[in-house]
Amino acid sequence: MSQKYATRAEDYSKWYNDLISRADLAEHSDVKGMMVIKPYGYAIWENMRDILDAKFKETGHQNAYFPLLIPKSYLSKEASHIEGFAKECAVVTHYRLMSDPNGGGVIVDPSAKLEEELIVRPTSETIIWNSYKKWIQSYRDLPILINQWANVVRWEMKTRLFLRTSEFLWQEGHTAHATKEEAIKETEQMLDVYAEFAETYMAMPVIKGHKTESERFAGADDTYCIESMMQDGKALQAGTSHFLGQNFAKAFDVKYSDAQGKLEYVWATSWGVSTRLMGALIMTHSDDEGLVLPPALAPIQVVIVPIYRTDEELQLINDAVAKITAELKDLKVKVKYDSDDQKRPGWKFAEHEAKGVPVRLAIGPRDLANGVVEIARRDTKEKYAMNIDNIGHSIVELLADIQSNLFQRAIQFRKENMHEVDTYEEFKTQLEKVGGFYLAHWDGTKETEAKIKEETKATIRCIPIGIPSETGRCMVTGAPSKGRVVFAKAY
Amino acid sequence: MSQKYATRAEDYSKWYNDLISRADLAEHSDVKGMMVIKPYGYAIWENMRDILDAKFKETGHQNAYFPLLIPKSYLSKEASHIEGFAKECAVVTHYRLMSDPNGGGVIVDPSAKLEEELIVRPTSETIIWNSYKKWIQSYRDLPILINQWANVVRWEMKTRLFLRTSEFLWQEGHTAHATKEEAIKETEQMLDVYAEFAETYMAMPVIKGHKTESERFAGADDTYCIESMMQDGKALQAGTSHFLGQNFAKAFDVKYSDAQGKLEYVWATSWGVSTRLMGALIMTHSDDEGLVLPPALAPIQVVIVPIYRTDEELQLINDAVAKITAELKDLKVKVKYDSDDQKRPGWKFAEHEAKGVPVRLAIGPRDLANGVVEIARRDTKEKYAMNIDNIGHSIVELLADIQSNLFQRAIQFRKENMHEVDTYEEFKTQLEKVGGFYLAHWDGTKETEAKIKEETKATIRCIPIGIPSETGRCMVTGAPSKGRVVFAKAY
Ligand SMILES: [Zn+2]
Ligand SMILES: [Zn+2]
């Protein structure tokens, strides 16, 4: 462990990259902008996915799978959709390779050119609504409540592991409804599912809100989001839920006949979270020693390390550990016994710390004689002796305490870094000095929003829901404002 | 239900397509060769995936994720790999679209041409071994036991839902080992995992064996497979496990230093099953009324249909059903109460039959008065009354009986359609008359294998493991044979 890693204070960005490497979560592949998610990182993502998937099913959604490749012409059917973002994408033009007649290797077979190019999905609204057109005739076919777990590609020139990669994994919900009200209710329900997941499982506090018009998803009438604060004070958009109005129904001509036989366009939503959540998780809790994981998402919640000199001592420890792990497994605690005799305890301690295992439990012969084990909490770095009697329940309580402590700590951090400002001068001066979220009045115009972004690099993260605010006057123009909005620099 | 569906006897191929549509499993998309897996079909696939995933983890594997797009040059690094199959694939040549200057829509931005084309993965050996090169230095880094759940694309001109599609979902295991013996053991272990899954959960008997050299995976030293018999007598390869020798290690220069510090090439395996299993499942059990599902994979194991005239009757039935479903859920039975009052019982019966729900339970007022429900078994179409007392346990036993009956029925069918033949004349005449598997002697040469395939369209499905056979003489050339091999026409 002689390698020097950056601390957050020294170089936040390098700290992030170092941490991902130390914790063995992911790495850049040789394919520009695309990452390899390594087993430990993928195990955390799997935990997120399984929890979210259960919540989607509880709220009545079913999974399905739609094609990876989308005909180019579909993308331009919804005008603002293609304007908005669908330009930077991977284009499939050919369907065959051939041996290079001039040497080794393969070349693209020029005779195998597609009549119409196919696009690797950057999101699936278009291909899905093309199917929904066939599936929907009557109000009896509604609602359609479908989710898809998939990979998507959006070409990125500047990438960061998990936060911005050309390929990422995500889920995308796509629902169809008979009424506007029902679609808005769905949009809001899924925002709540995301917020509850973020706070309960990721221990990451979020602010729910609406995006401004200029920050909306391309093709949406309204984009809801959850925004969380990272340890450098920047905002990270952790999930979005879009009310798509009738835009895609009109683009793909999807109508249903209501109970009276009248034809109406269908109302739509879409909503998604991605492997970006991994970046949010890392930057919410981790410290200079490495990853810190909330127990609810940790692939290993408790690691046990034996401390011994002789085979006899090891035998005694093994026997005690067998009982402890059985007890923990009964209580559904994810426990690992790290009995690797090729590595010293100190090396293991650093390793498990870097990987963010919430609880470490060290056992030596003297501990056993005293009927205790040594506990180390990853979140607070406290160490203390814990009785072996009834250790299962003690550990379950400890894990719950860690989960809650991480959330409280993050709430506290956000509180300390949330500023109310009333003048643009104050905003600019403050923002220069410290990051964080700035609650300020805005006149509701694109022009003012653009000016602020241009001059300060801060954007309106959301028009918050549930943060009470008085009316006021825009900090830039002095025009009336209905309430404070959240400004921040963002990932 | 006035639509006329093909029976197996009338038109097996149309029966298959009709069934997928009736059971609402999947459909062709407008993207050539690519399918949409609909919620009910996807739910079955999810069940398969979850069971397999647990088995992979039990045998020490971890999931990870590697890039979708592979640099073209990687594919030609392992010479026989590219020769074998990697030619028919989707080629990404550009990374941006632009608005068409001559009108609406978008065109490919000619300035956004990739220096090296990227291939949508047809399988991931090359991109994964390019990573393993960085991960493996010493014998301490081995074994690497990784699995990936992913989508892959292999361009197909003639497609059939689930059986042959240009995009499909699969898992691909990729392992790296220090010794040849360990790699072969892994290859065989994963074959056993597949065989056990097929027989225990899919209720589909399989023959394990080796592929002949000409049927091997491109880049493998040995391909093991499981072969199952469909109801038209054709064989379907349901899973493969490849011993890759040191071929990919040599192609990507992956060496490890052993305990003595000597550098050695790493040994490899890969193994996979795909959404093709859905086709196998359908064709093993289903009948002219629709899908027949083994309970172990059924998204709905028991459906309950109320039979009533008045609201009072319905109320009584609802109360009884509430108790029954609670009892069934306690026993982890997947039960659905189909109380939709817009559809008549007869319509529902046909619907659940088409979807292969293993057990249907109808309840009317007279049944309730007698303390019974009416059971209909999907597999045997038997109907009988079952006591409501202790119904949970009766249903659990019934589901187990159905699972076992389906397997026994498939075993019996295979037995009846497995022929031993000793002369090529007999082989050809018989094969013309009835399908099935033919156990015959073969001289072990590519030439004879090719001749048989050319003349009869039957291929060697495998050199079977565990089917005892005497030595003999090749039915074509009369040259010595070490044992009978399995011939059949195949999907
Ligand atoms: Zn809004
Ligand atoms: Zn073999």
TrEMBL record, chains A, B:
Pfam families: HGTP_anticodon, ProRS-C_1, tRNA-synt_2b
Gene Ontology CC terms: aminoacyl-tRNA synthetase multienzyme complex; cytoplasm
GO molecular-function terms, A-Z: ATP binding; proline-tRNA ligase activity
PROSITE patterns (alphabetical): AA_TRNA_LIGASE_II (PS50862)
Catalytic activity: tRNA(Pro) + L-proline + ATP = L-prolyl-tRNA(Pro) + AMP + diphosphate
Key word Cell inner membrane present: no
Classification via CDD domains: ProRS_anticodon_zinc, ProRS_core_arch_euk
PANTHER family on file: BIFUNCTIONAL GLUTAMATE_PROLINE--TRNA LIGASE, PROLYL-TRNA SYNTHETASE
Subunit structure: Homodimer.
Full protein name: Proline--tRNA ligase
Organism of provenance: Fluviicola taffensis (strain DSM 16823 / NCIMB 13979 / RW262)
Gene behind the chain: proS
